[in-house]
Amino acid sequence: MGAAIAEFKRAGMAEADVGAIVTAAGVAHGTFFFHFPTKEHVLLELEQREEQRIAKQYTQFLKKPHSLEEGLREAMRLVVGLERRLGGVLFKDFLALHFSQTRPPAQDSQEHPVISGVAREIELAQQQGEVAADVNPWNSAVFFLLGFYALLITTNDWPTRDALLEDYVVRTMRSLSP
C-alpha cells in the first residue's frame, strides 16, 4: 500500500507504474493484483482509511464546545490536512475516484462519516434555532462538502484560495440562517 501511494504521489494514478510499485514493495507482480484488483482499489482502500481517520479526529473536536461555523471550519481544516499529506496530484485522483461513475464498489458499503458528522452539526444548530427550520441537514452537509471539494481541486494554486475558502464558509453560514 505504501509503495503504491508513493508511486501515485509521483505520477498520478493513471500513469503509476505497477512494476515500480512491486519493485519498491519487494513483492511479485501478481501479489499487487491479489491485494488490489485494480489501481483504483488502492485509492478506495486509502479513501476508507482516511475517511475514518478524519471522522475520528472530527468526532474528538465535536466533543468540545463549539459553534456550527467552527464545526464547518474544522471539517475543512481536516480535509486540507489530507490534501497536504497526499499532495496535489494524489489528492485530485483521490477526489476524482470518490465521485467517479466507474468507482469500484466498497466492500462494506458504509455511510460517509464526515458527511454524517457535518449533517449532525447542522441538525444540532437547527434544533437550537441557529439554522432555518426548512433546511435539510443531510442535503446541506452534502452541498457544503461538494462545494468545498470542488474549490480545493480547482483553486489549489490560486494565491487567493484561503480568502475564497473563508468567503465560502461565510456564505454557507448565511445560507443556513433562519
TrEMBL record:
* Record feature DNA-binding region, as residue ranges: 17-36
Highest taxon, organism lineage: Bacteria
- Residues spanning the signal sequence: none
Q: Pinpoint the HTH tetR-type domain residues.
A: 1-54
The family database entries (Gene3D superfamilies) matched by this protein are listed as: Tetracycline Repressor, domain 2
Which key words are in the record? DNA-binding, Transcription, Transcription regulation
Kindly indicate whether the keyword DNA-binding belongs to this entry.
Answer: yes
Q: Which InterPro entries match?
A: Homeodomain-like_sf, HTH-type_TetR-like_transc_reg, HTH_TetR
* Name of the protein in its database record: TetR/AcrR family transcriptional regulator
